[in-house]
Amino acid sequence: MGDIRSRPLIVLKGLLFLAMSVLAGVLLVAESPRWQTAALAGVLAWASARSYYFLFYVLHAYVDPSLRYAGIGAMLSNLMGRRGGGA
Length: 87
Hints:
transmembrane helix; transmembrane; membrane
């Protein structure tokens, strides 16, 4: 499967990810309606976004420009292949 090139489809994909995130957060807080649950869900969302940014932008821009991956699965597969081949 190739990369998505259509701008409307890319925007739709982003909006669907946003909708999934909001729905998951709402359902989580509805399941346990406490401030602690809402705060932890917020920290989880923030930390996940920052770690994704780190993995796919910071490492590429500031550590090694050859680090380019299609996703976390591709990155882990590549890293496991490197480790296994070098051992």
